[in-house]
Amino acid sequence: MGMSVTISAAAGNDAEQILKLQYLCYQGEAELYGDYSIEPLTQSLDDLRAELGSGCVLVARLGEEVVGSVRGTVDGEGTAVITGLIVHPRMRRHGLGGRLLAAIEERLAGEWSAKRYRLTTGQRSEVSLRLYRNRGYERTGTERISRALTLVVLEKEAVPAPAFVASA
User: Fold this and answer.
1) Is 163 domain-assigned?
2) pTM of this structure
3) Per-residue CA distances from 28 to 36, 48, 69, 95 (Å)
4) Does residue 164 fall inside a structural domain?
5) From the CB of residue 16, how many other CB atoms can be counted at a distance below 10 Å?
């Protein structure tokens, strides 16, 4: 019998596993754009620990192993910025990225009162772009990072949680 993947809030002691997974997952992006100095590959453990303490961070676990993660913060206007969606290469193509994205959206809307979601991905990152489009995100702009890398900005409105209606 196989183990199932569970999604939960990250704990402080998950930082090292998340950072190692992030480094592994962003190798393909760095190769795609010919830039190994991208922030996910240069982030320090201390910086990641600070993120764990200041925003919403979820992890996907297979047993004790962190096999996926995603992060989000919400600004004063209710815009949730979602970053760092990663899935271990051996776990890809099984819907885990979509599950993580849905879980962070639900958490940010419910506990953090998000009204809309915003995320970015590289213009050549077709798998990510397809996932986001399939989840209702629409392109709202671009941000040029370097000659080789332009980020696509995508957004969607948060769907409010259904109000509880008592029946008579």
Assistant:
1) no
2) 0.91
3) 10, 20, 17, 19
4) no
5) 12
